[in-house]
Amino acid sequence: MLDRIYDIRFLIELGVFATLSVLILGLAVLTVYSRNIVHSALYLIGSFAGVAALYISLNAPFLGVAQVLVYIGAVGVLILFAVMLTRRTIMEESHG
Q: 47 burial class (0-12, 13-18, 19+ CB within 10 angstroms)?
């Protein structure tokens, strides 16, 4: 009976890990192949969130929280603001 419980728990953990891995890899591929730079930045933030969820599911909550604060909070917002501030200038120079 106890072995069956451990097998079910292992299968659930394996399913969560596989789902998060596919999500992270899919968002990373979309980040690289997206033509719109804003969409690419949003896919990158989604990939960072997936990595944070992976850390939390692997019983490393400090790394998960650090991932959210440092990468999503700081780097992601920095990329989005840089894109939003420079995009209009590039568009005006190319059309003007």
A: buried
Domain with residue 16: its CATH number is 1.20.120.1200
Give 22-78 as a DSSP string.
HHHHHHHHHHHH-SSHHHHHHHHHHHHHHHHHHHHHTT-HHHHHHIIIIIIIIIIHH
**Closest Cα partner for 70 from 39, 91, 45, 36?**
45
Number of domains in the chain: 1
CB atoms inside a 10 Å sphere around CB 7: 10
Q: What is the pTM of this model?
A: 0.77
- Give the pair of three-digit tokens for residue 80: 């989005």
50-72 pLDDT per residue, tens: 999 999 998 999 999 998 888 88
The domain containing residue 19 runs over which residues? 2-95
- Report residue 70 as tokens: 């440092």
